[in-house]
């Protein structure tokens, strides 16, 4: 008899599929890749479609994965992430321009997107729009200045003359007056080619962490707790809030994202482990059970998995996962467990 840790469905024959504690898209951990046999096939299929894909492709952690040589065949760019050229001198007036996300196969950023910029005189910021967003722009004198020629600050950018003209056509279609004073400018960073013929650009990524992203991280934490503590533990009703949040999108768990180091005592500030590891731990914190996860040194996510509940201290556990290597048991330095 087996009971699913997410929907609590029972199956006398056990479940066919296995659930990977860390989604497979993040790699394998030698012969010790942790998997669970206590997730039913229905939950398993739901997770791989709704949460694992999102974690792998639509988070900073997932995008970083492709830079680390873990690639996927996904064609569409991530939805929650925006990529911009860094505002540094070598990018000239293209600093801040919207660029395509990394190619999931090569990990290389795709270049400039066709775009329209208009300066908002109230905020003094350049608003930047991709072609598809142009139809939503509402031009008012208060926001962008009076319509007298040369008064409004606007820019059009595109990776080719054809794409540049597409932006102009879209502006015309929605009656946004843009006076073409010059044609396509040469993009300075396209000259910066390395010996392998790759263009080097410096960019930044802005990401939004929404509830579904948090559920995807929470599932990794819940899986981890089940694998390294026990199925018996996470099947307790105390864990229902976390379980229902992950499986049924119910009320969100309390969550905190920071850039603080993961391992107490072993690293501080920017001194972090250099390798491509994923750090996960479950611990008692201020009377709650907290799950902590950090991938590629990016962000430290802390989630209250169970409120007003304590694990026996021998259940508090931390592991470091590096693709291709066996999971490495971490030791909480603030509470040494050796003599
Ligand atoms: Zn289930």
Sheet with most strands: 6 strands, antiparallel
| Number of DSSP helical runs | 7
Radius of gyration: 24 Å
Give the tally of structural domains.
Answer: 2
Fraction of residues in β-strands: 15-25%
* Regions with little confidence, pLDDT below 50 for 5+ residues: 335-339
In which order are the strands of the major sheet placed?
11-14-13-12-15-16
Q: Which geometry do the CA atoms define?
A: elongated
Separation, N- and C-terminal Cα atoms = 41 Å
Mean pLDDT: 82
Q: What percent of the residues sit in helical stretches (DSSP H or I)?
A: 10-25%
In short:
The chain has helices at residues 41-57, 60-67, 141-144, 161-173, 211-228, 231-234, 240-248, and strands at 2-3, 10-11, 19-20, 35-36, 81-85, 98-99, 115-120, 125-130, 154-157, 203-207, 255-258, 278-285, 288-295, 300-306, 317-321, 328-330. The protein is α+β, with helices and mostly antiparallel strands and 339 residues long. A hairpin with a 2-residue loop joins β12 (278-285) and β13.
């Amino acid at each position: 008899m087996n009971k699913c840790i997410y929907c609590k469905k029972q199956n006398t024959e056990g479940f066919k599929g296995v659930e990977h504690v860390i989604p497979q898209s993040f790699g394998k951990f030698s012969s010790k890749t942790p998997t669970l046999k206590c997730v039913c096939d229905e939950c398993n299929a739901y997770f791989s479609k709704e949460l694992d894909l999102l974690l792998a492709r639509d988070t900073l952690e997932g995008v970083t994965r492709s830079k680390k040589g873990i690639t996927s065949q996904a064609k569409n760019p991530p939805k929650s992430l925006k990529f911009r050229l860094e505002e540094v001198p070598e990018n000239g007036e293209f600093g801040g321009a919207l660029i395509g996300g990394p190619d999931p196969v090569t990990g290389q950023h795709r270049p400039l997107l066709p775009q329209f910029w208009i300066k908002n005189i109230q905020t003094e910021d350049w608003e930047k729009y991709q072609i598809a967003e142009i139809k939503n722009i509402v031009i008012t004198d208060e926001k962008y200045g009076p319509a007298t020629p040369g008064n409004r600050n606007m820019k059009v950018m595109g990776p080719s003359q054809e794409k540049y003209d597409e932006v102009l056509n879209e502006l015309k279609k929605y009656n946004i007056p843009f006076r073409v004073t010059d044609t396509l400018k040469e993009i300075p960073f396209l000259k910066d080619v390395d010996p392998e013929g790759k263009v080097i650009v410096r960019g930044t990524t802005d990401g939004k962490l929404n509830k579904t992203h948090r559920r995807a991280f929470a599932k990794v934490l819940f899986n981890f707790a089940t694998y390294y503590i026990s199925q018996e533990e996470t099947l307790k009703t105390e864990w229902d809030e976390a379980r229902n949040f992950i499986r049924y999108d119910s009320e969100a768990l309390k969550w905190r994202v920071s850039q603080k180091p993961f391992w107490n005592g072993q690293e501080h500030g920017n001194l972090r482990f250099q390798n491509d590891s994923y750090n996960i731990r479950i611990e008692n914190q201020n009377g709650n059970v907290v799950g902590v996860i950090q991938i590629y040194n990016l962000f430290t996510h802390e989630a209250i998995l169970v409120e007003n509940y304590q694990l026996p201290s021998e259940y508090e556990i931390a592991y470091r996962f590096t693709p291709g290597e066996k999971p490495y048991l971490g030791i909480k330095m603030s509470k040494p467990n050796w003599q």
